[in-house]
């Protein structure tokens, strides 16, 4: 009887401690979002948009309206300033996408070069935004890539991709990788950026997971695998510290969404004037192979 009484008192105490919590999301003014990159041998690509509130219902019309049009965008390399032109793309569904790049028909189109530094300037609605990035020298390289059967798997068509990578002596060699399966676009890995704190100055072999489309749900039953008969390409990019920090923190936050035990984090961009996003430079190396059926 005494134990029942104690249990009843504890239950009443716990019930009385309950509080109803109403969470009202903060509605913030939109901010400029910059997705800009330049790669060796390729022209720059700059996509400008406006941020959306967390609980915004997103559809194709909302996304189309978020693009920033008619901005003034330039990139400076050395003493030369290159104006960028706005371009429009349409997909098979009629959706429109907008980006800024150098005019290929212009007098002096800009393409990325190893070891160069680039300064991005954007003017929108009377506000100015600036950023700077560099394309490093190509010092960390893939020696070769190959495939082998997927371990602990009953599907004989599944394979894993391997690469042998050479890291030069000295810390501070950062990389980001992408893969392409057949005619699909290059996609970054789920964890796509790495430093050399552990493997400094070593040649090592590593499994290269197939890249993922972050706009689609990831099937972890097939994640990372390629198939026999695939034509596979790997794009390994040397990057600087600011590019590494942006994607490291961005991917951490993406994978923390919906996890109540994850610690909050801030995405570290490199755009001035309280804008979101980053201007990234890539020193890219490519390797391809055909996996026989």
TrEMBL record:
Q: Which InterPro entries match?
A: DUF4249 (IPR025345)
User: Out of the domains of life, which is the source?
Assistant: Bacteria
Q: Which Pfam families match?
A: DUF4249
What is the name of the protein in this document?
DUF4249 domain-containing protein
According to its UniProt entry, this protein's organism is: Sediminibacterium sp. KACHI17
């Amino acid at each position: 009887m005494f134990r029942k009484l104690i249990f009843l008192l504890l239950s009443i105490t716990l019930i009385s401690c309950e509080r109803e919590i109403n969470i009202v999301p903060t509605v913030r003014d939109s901010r400029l979002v910059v997705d800009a990159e330049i790669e060796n041998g390729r022209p720059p690509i700059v996509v400008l948009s406006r941020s959306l509130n967390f609980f915004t219902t997103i559809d194709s019309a909302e996304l189309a309206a978020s693009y920033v049009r008619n901005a003034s965008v330039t990139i400076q390399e050395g003493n030369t300033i290159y104006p960028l032109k706005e371009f429009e793309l349409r997909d098979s569904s009629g959706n429109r996408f907008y980006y800024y790049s150098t005019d290929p028909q212009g007098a002096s189109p800009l393409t990325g070069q190893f070891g160069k530094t680039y300064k991005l300037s954007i003017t929108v609605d009377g506000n100015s935004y600036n950023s700077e990035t560099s394309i490093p020298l190509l010092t960390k390289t893939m020696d070769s890539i190959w495939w082998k059967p997927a371990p602990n798997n009953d599907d004989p068509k599944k394979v894993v991709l391997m690469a042998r990578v050479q890291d030069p002596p000295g810390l501070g060699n950062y990389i980001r990788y992408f893969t392409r399966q057949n005619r699909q676009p290059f996609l970054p890995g789920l964890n796509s950026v790495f430093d050399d704190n552990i493997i400094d100055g070593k040649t090592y072999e590593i499994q290269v997971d197939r890249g993922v489309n972050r706009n689609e749900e990831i099937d972890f039953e097939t994640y990372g695998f390629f198939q026999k008969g695939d034509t596979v390409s790997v794009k390994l990019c040397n990057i600087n510290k600011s590019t590494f920090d942006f994607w490291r923190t961005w991917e951490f936050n993406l994978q923390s969404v919906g996890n109540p035990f994850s610690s909050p984090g801030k995405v570290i961009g490199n755009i001035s004037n309280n804008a979101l996003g980053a201007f990234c430079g890539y020193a890219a190396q490519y390797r391809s192979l055909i996996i026989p059926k």
